[in-house]
């Protein structure tokens, strides 16, 4: 409600706002500043073949180090960016930075795309412009979207189709935690289902096996998130999931530390 009053509104209302709302307003202001000053970084977490341990790609994860607050987690600031229009500029910065980093990599890079970015009528033309600017082949990119985009069936169908026509791969992030329209999901020709880390961490056999079977029947591959132990990796291989991400395989780190990105 407060944000509808615009930026000046905050000043007037500040003293009346509760703690959470003023923290949100503060983060929003700081995010706008950080965007113009390019205070963000992209870190990369490897996606690994669990059988051969070969790195098959990377996921780009945004990092923000605030001058006085220190590291602020994307869990906090992405949510706030999504509640405002900050997500659009932030999403574009991520794509630009990934393209700059891509020059050093011959591996697939996955980018997290906020459902809000699908609302931007210029989304596709912006993406095309960025790829043209950096002369990057779109098939090097994978876009991670969440099940929440399924709510807007028509829009999602047309955007995903256009992205796929460009050659971009599409994955469903945190799969199993949200609402999925299964008919739509199979129509979309998704490339990858990412099993949410909560199911790995609970060793949720039934759910993991169901997702693996769904992937097989829809012709998409499966990747497991949040693998923290060797046992979890073995458990997944046994059930037919052979690609994963997680601290045991590699933590998100700056591009310079991902030596393998160069080969
Ligand atoms: P996500 O896309 O599901 O990313 C996976 C999150 O799990 C990352 O948290 C990653 O650091 C963390 N993670 C990876 N391996 C493990 C593990 O073994 N154990 C545990 N406990 N966690 C693990 P992070 O970087 O804090 O990002 C949180 C969420 O913020 C992401 O979830 C994604 O939804 C969002 N996000 C991050 N970067 C971006 C971005 O550039 N754009 C957008 N729109 N969203 C982003
Ligand atoms: Mg992701
Ligand atoms: Mg995820
Ligand atoms: Mg997750």
From TrEMBL:
| Sequence ranges assigned to domain EAL in this UniProt record | 24-263
The residues forming the signal peptide are none
Highest taxon above the source species: Bacteria
Question: What name has this protein been given in UniProt?
Answer: Diguanylate cyclase
Question: Which region of the full protein is contained in this chain?
Answer: 455 to 717 of 717
